[in-house]
């Protein structure tokens, strides 16, 4: 019997349950004549939780136009996971009927320019946060070419709509529906007194606008991009924009609506 023609990669964390699901799902896919391919897949299945989906995203961040993602969670409910570990047969059946439909969400582009001219570019699915390594960070923030404020505090984070429910929310930022193509700038413990002032609330930035951050001191700064951390010295500027590419998820009958995910994660069942 011929294969389905669909190339699938499976990525799992090291937890025993995730590894068990990995082997079981791989065999089910092979039995239904899917092609297991870890270099040029059509569909990437992450097994674990949201952290594993972030890892899968970054593995294939240079193939976003070609790849669609599916999440299987083996622990607590995740924002990026549609299937439980006991729904593998349903997942395989849905993939057999897959017509290529997708659900697409915005991605953050981060460009770091150093004083020596070096440029580093990153993509974030959730957020990118910047801090000074050992003391208060001071940086000028420019929004759409308008000098907006001189920030003093622990740092700032810029999040995507899907990332609005992650670190951004713990900082008091708003929850954005992922189909809204916008960024959110949120301060981390800003200093506000009679001498130093910032807006103090999170800011929603439209797709067409760019956020620029210019540190005022030549020192080490720590940049966190999703689940990875980098250290840079002598940053000239950091630019944040909506990326030209989006992340695509397989649109199946099991794709959970965003508001159901928010409710399940933060509210739960409401008592009548």
Automatic annotation (TrEMBL):
Its cofactor is a divalent metal cation. Keywords: ATP-binding, Cytoplasm, Kinase, NAD, NADP, Nucleotide-binding, Transferase. Its EC number is 2.7.1.23. Pfam families: NAD_kinase, NAD_kinase_C. NAD(+) binds at residues 50-51, 126-127, 152, 154, 165-170, 189. It comes from the Bacteria. It catalyses: NAD(+) + ATP = ADP + NADP(+) + H(+). It is found in: Cytoplasm. Involved in the regulation of the intracellular balance of NAD and NADP, and is a key enzyme in the biosynthesis of NADP. Catalyzes specifically the phosphorylation on 2'-hydroxyl of the adenosine moiety of NAD to yield NADP. This is NAD kinase. It comes from Streptococcus mitis ATCC 6249.
């Amino acid at each position: 019997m011929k294969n389905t023609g669909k190339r699938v990669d499976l990525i799992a964390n090291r937890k025993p349950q995730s590894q068990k699901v990995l082997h079981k799902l791989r065999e089910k896919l092979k039995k239904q004549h899917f092609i297991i391919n870890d270099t040029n897949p059509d569909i990437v299945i992450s097994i674990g939780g949201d952290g594993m989906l972030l890892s899968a995203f970054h593995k294939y961040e240079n193939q976003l136009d070609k790849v669609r993602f599916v999440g299987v969670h083996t622990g607590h409910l995740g924002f990026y996971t549609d299937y439980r570990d006991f729904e593998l047969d349903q997942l395989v059946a849905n993939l057999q009927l897959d017509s290529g439909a997708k659900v697409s969400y915005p991605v953050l582009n981060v460009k770091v320019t150093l004083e020596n001219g070096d440029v580093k570019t990153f993509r974030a699915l959730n957020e990118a946060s910047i801090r000074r390594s050992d003391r208060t960070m001071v940086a000028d923030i420019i929004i759409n070419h308008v000098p907006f404020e001189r920030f003093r505090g622990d740092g700032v984070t810029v999040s995507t709509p899907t990332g609005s429910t992650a670190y951004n929310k713990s900082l008091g930022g708003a929850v954005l529906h992922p189909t809204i193509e916008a960024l959110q700038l949120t301060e981390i413990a800003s200093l506000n007194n009679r001498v130093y002032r910032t807006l103090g609330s999170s800011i929603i930035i439209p797709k067409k606008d760019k956020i620029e951050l210019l540190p005022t001191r030549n020192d080490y700064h720590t940049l966190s991009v999703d689940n990875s951390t980098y250290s840079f010295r002598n940053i000239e500027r950091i630019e944040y924009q909506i990326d030209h590419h989006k992340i695509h998820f397989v649109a199946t009958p099991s794709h959970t609506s965003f508001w159901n995910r928010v409710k399940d994660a933060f509210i739960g069942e409401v008592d009548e």
